[in-house]
Amino acid sequence: MPKDKIPTYHQTHPPDLATIEALRLEGLQPAAGQTVAALFKLRTGNREHLSGLYRRADAVPLQVKESS
Fold first, then answer.
1. What is the pLDDT of residues 31-59, one digit of tens each?
2. 49 neighbors 13 (Cβ within 8 angstroms)
3. What is the DSSP letter of 6?
4. In the chain, what are the domain boundaries?
5. What is the pLDDT of residue 2?
6. 20, 29, 38, 68: which one has the fewest Cβ atoms less than 10 Å from its Cβ?
7. 61 to each of 1, 8, 15, 19, how far by Cα in Å?
């Protein structure tokens, strides 16, 4: 998918989309091969942050890595 076809949200985004960090807080992670559904631009002061958003419905339970 060309970059200009990916939806971009500013300051807020739909509740069915989440960043990787938000998914992890819910015990989820993007599924294998799951692509970014949208981009999220957040402006704080003079900085702009860009994050990928994933569909919550397609996320899978977080895989916990066992320490050796």
1. 999 999 999 999 999 999 999 999 999 99
2. no
3. S
4. 3-59
5. 59
6. 68
7. 26, 26, 18, 15
**Tokens representing residue 27 in the block:** 């015990």
Q: Which two tokens stand for residue 28?
A: 């989820």
Using alpha carbons, select from 28, 27, 25, 30 the residue that is nearest to residue 53: 30
- The first and second tokens of residue 24, run together, are 């992890």
pTM of the model: 0.82
Q: Which amino acid is at 8?
A: T
Contact indicator for 51, 40 with CB cutoff of 8 Å: yes
Is residue 53 within 8 A of residue 17, CB to CB? The reply is yes
